[in-house]
Amino acid sequence: MTTTEYSHPASCPLCRTPTSSVLALELRRGAGIVYYCKACQHGFLEANRALDTKTYYAENYRQEYSHNAEAAATNAREIFDVYRHYQRTRLDAISPYLAGTTKLLEVGASSGQFLVNIKDRVAEIHAIELDKDCCAFMQNELGIHADSEFLRESAFADEIYDVVCSFQVMEHVADPAVFLRELHQSAKKGGTIFVEVPNLHDPLLSVWKVNSYQKFFYHSAHLHYFTEVSLRKTAELAGFAPDQVAISFTQDYNLLNHLNWVMNDAPQATCNVGLSEISLAGVNQEITSWLTEKMTTLNSEYIEKLVKAKATSNLMMVLKNV
Q: What does pTM read for this prediction?
């Protein structure tokens, strides 16, 4: 990880240590500085504008960020159609905790692309999603009871769940420790909480150091950039003991996506090829099938290497409410 020293220090939102180490001075969208706290190994954004979180995620976020590299705006149906097929790592993690009697809450459920995969395997599902379009889509199209308020202000504030999950959300919140406490409050004794966040040691930065990915990775909507160390620190601040916390390393984008970045120094047009199972098409079926098989095997081995190096795209934290 490369940092530079900046003339104006900032205070780490986790441990309050002043730092002048900077990860990024330029963002994909918006303006701000991403600092790095060496004390707790945490990255954080000092933005140049105040953000009304509820209004931003209810109305503006999906107009700025999407699965497309260029055209930013998206909608609930498009999000659902694209991402419902790419939930394998989350399903692998959570499936052992699901049963016909399970009551589950997802906070920041987007358009229900994860929940649709499990809704028929559990007793009850609730969803929190600030984006009103996505919230309405889940209710009207998927039959999932969803609320567009913050959890503690929602219809589910007093409900207790066997499983509480939140994927790619905590990096957006002002105070991650408070966020975890609120999830904890909604989990029953003996229940389990799953929290997935992007890994600051993303392989395109920590393994390949792709120049243009630096600006792509750091952007205005992410207030926090977690490492394993800072994620454990957040859990500690939220009141979890070390033996209640487990962290695993997961990779979503495949080898083809990484090779594209390495060779072209640019993203693919959409996320589909990078998130899909590798399948190469060509005129000669024998050769294309052979290469697909070889690339699939190599992709699995590559991901194993990334996991061992703790250099995957995401971190999955599992919290036990004992």
A: 0.93
